[in-house]
Amino acid sequence: MLKSNKIAAAISVYGKVQGVGFRFYANKKAKELNICGHVANKPNGTVYIEAEGAKSDLDSFIDWCSIGPQWAKVTRVEIQHVPPLNYLIFIIK
Questions:
Q1: Active-site positions?
Q2: The CATH number fitting domain 3-92, selected from 3.10.20.30, 3.30.70.100, 3.30.1050.10, 3.40.1160.10
Q3: Is the pTM of this model over 0.90?
């Protein structure tokens, strides 16, 4: 994939999203969709993700984030489009 084809987003996920495997499953889904970046728990109880990839893959990843794993209860997802940082892999922080 050419770097110029990548788009990126900063994603904040709200609700019951910590302690439910959200980061683990986000990492798994990102790898399935060829998304690069990272996922982390934040002190305010949200999950924060920086993700980049092809538009269709990133759209699918964002759709997944609005649901999360089966134990999560996502109440809101905030998306901010940002310039790609050319991550090479996806990691859990």
A1: 23, 41
A2: 3.30.70.100
A3: yes
